[in-house]
Write a structure and sequence with these properties.
about 90 residues, 2 helices, YaeB-like fold, about 30% strand, alpha+beta, four-stranded mixed beta sheet
Length: about 90
């Protein structure tokens, strides 16, 4: 089981999305709960030390692509970037 840590860049992305999507925090909290238990099952970015999680959209929140890195030594998931995946 991992802890999660948001980077300043990640928080900036969420703050920017919050202006358009009032329930964005609910989606991020859900993603954090999933990553605390299953961070290692999501695909990695080819040639990089990052992984990504794509959420499903729900009312008031678009699908999100969340880029993160696992720090095995500290048992932490560092949330690096978040983007809307609206189609």
């Amino acid at each position: 089981m991992y802890g999660t840590r948001r980077t300043a860049t990640f928080d900036g992305h969420i703050d920017a999305l919050r202006t358009d999507f009032s329930r964005i925090d609910v989606a991020v909290q859900f993603a954090e709960k999933i990553l605390e238990r299953h961070a290692d099952v999501f695909p990695s970015v080819i040639g990089m030390d990052f992984r990504y999680l794509r959420t499903r959209p729900f009312p008031g929140v678009p699908a999100l692509a969340i880029i993160y890195r696992i720090d095995e030594a500290e048992h932490l998931v560092h949330l690096m970037r978040a983007e809307s995946c609206e189609e």
